[in-house]
Amino acid sequence: MSKFFALAIFAAMSLPLHSQQEQAKPEDTEVWQPEPKVVTPAAECGKPPSDAIVLFDGKNLDEWVSAQDRSQPAKWTIADGILVVSKTAGNIETKRAFHNYQFHMEWRVPENITGSGQARGNSGLFLASTGTGDAGYELQVLDSYNNKTYVNGMAASIYKQSIPLANPTRKPGQWQVYDVVWTAPTFNDDGSLKTPAYVTAFFNGVLVQNHFELKGETRYIGQPFYKKFDGAPIKLQAHGDKSEPLSFRNIWVRDIP
Ligand code: MG
What we know:
By secondary structure, the protein is mainly beta. It is 8% helix and 29% strand. The site of magnesium ion (MG) has 8 residues, from strand 7 and strand 8.
């Protein structure tokens, strides 16, 4: 095509577009449907909004079961409205299965915490539990206040996959807050990965994971890989280290359609 013809075609295409823009009205780009559903926010920021599924509000563990044997109740301790890890009872997970969601949780290591590295206030939030033990996708819970460890295993890391963007850990004895957006992976019928998992997380209000694309399940040893699942419980870890146990409160989740 000659330069002349190319220019002529360009002119013919751009002129009508330009004149269309001049005739356009503000209403042309206004969208009125579908209207977002009304959600009543909590009076206090961090408390569950009206459409949240409350997983723990200080009263009971009705939403939870043992992760080792889902026919058994979750046997962690509740004291003064606070959930305390029972290391002998093992991991616990939700009765319900989730896909994509927004999640809120508050956790605390004791003021008199001992131990170091991974053996200091270790727990974990498994964004999808895909089996017993530590199978799944773990956002690490650990005392990372002046506690050196491998950085892809510190608090708010995606365990052995993603270093947090910052370390806003509060001192032991103070409440720490996780707010997480989880996009579950999807799979083809043959088990191959269709779309990966993503996580965005705030730790004490500070962005620590920004739409991170996971490489698969988090693994203690070896490289991560995906295994097909469709909907999974959320799991909390009772880590076997000898430090004093963690506490949790105000846990809720909102499904993302
Ligand atoms: Mg852990």
